[in-house]
Amino acid sequence: MANMTILGAGLAGLSTAMMLRGDGHDVTVLERDPAPPGSRLWETWQRPGVNQFRLPHFMLPRWWQTLSADLPAAAAEVLAAGGSRFSLVPPSQREGDARFETVTARRPVLEAAMARAAERCGVVLRRGVRVSGVRLESETRVIGVTTDGDPVSSDLVIDCSGRRSAMPAWLAAAGVTPPAEERDDAGFVYYSRHFRGDRPGLRVMVQQQYASVTVLTLPADDGTWSVVLIGSTRDHALRVLRDPATWTSVVRRYPLAAPWIDAEPITGVDVMAGIEDRLRHYAPGGAPLLTGMVPLGDAWACTNPSLGRGAAFTLIHARVLRDTLRDTDPADHDKVARRFHEATARTVLPLYRATNGFDKHRLAEMDGDVTGAPYQTDDLRWIGAKALYAAALRDPDMLRAYLTVAGFLETPDEVFAKPGVRDRVLALGVSAPQYPLPGPDRAELLRLCTA
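and the corresponding structure tokens:
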């Protein structure tokens, strides 16, 4: 067994810590921000290291299934904290629909529950510790980190510090070649509000695509939920959505989302932009840049959060690391680094590529709505995704095929390979309108924004 140091006590760090602790490793998590208060987490817990801490979150069925299977004590804590059971399938359900069920909550509630579970299983959480760099034994061998207090030694440092990870800068400062990056400014802007009351029933998918905007209706814990309008950062006409009255008048024009705002708002309109899709290459050409440190979750690759895949993505990646360490002696630093990066490329990288591809197409489609030049592409994956979405609105079998992809349970390739799916999607979806759901077109949306 080995001594593991994890950077960051967010969902990624806590999940990874519990998986590794469950295998007998000594695990310490270093976190800059303070511990959660005893109560009123939503109102009082300050997490300046996480800029999306009070923004909408949604946990996909893949996350809940993995958490329940691999970390049942953590799953129980989430439920005990008020996590809300929810199914992606609107009424009426049928046999087999349990796979679309999840439990979800607001980020402060989730993190506090996961932290309790981590400490109960023997993970050491050190909060209020600011990491300032890496410690090296040789030019490329990390043996720990430096902090604002005493240095920390470790057999393996695991970077779970999120999309704003400073690891590349620390490596450069230590003379280690930092990872090359692929960056795509996703170009989305999010206008969101949280509500409290009697939650409306789901009438369609939680993610709804319309002309130049996407609408999310996301359940949370303790009788709360959020509604999000997503536009392009280049769509300057939508900037008026920062005003709660304008935001409300616009959402009311979308019949499937309107019931979700007939409740008590518990926030104003929160705005988030500048979210990028980014991939860091820590093993270019298959050769790791260093040993003794591995990046995990958003610290390795991060995507547009509107698909809700971040937490599930992280759990899958944590499982990859756990399994690598089960099969490889942690003392064999070179082999651990190589096998982890190989498994990441095989298991997690395709999920990132698929999500990044969706982001690019959807943003281009929204920008085409804004300019009046309809987006066209010959990418069969995007054409298939749009057709499956449209078919899902007309056929209960295709709805479940679509939700299998949306819930991160299977890949599009796996779904389309099933008997009859491709033919049914072609029959129902290819000739469907670009935006099948009822709601304002671009012209009406502009009138609402200038009223």
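(Above: one complete record from the training split.) The chain has a mean pLDDT of 95.
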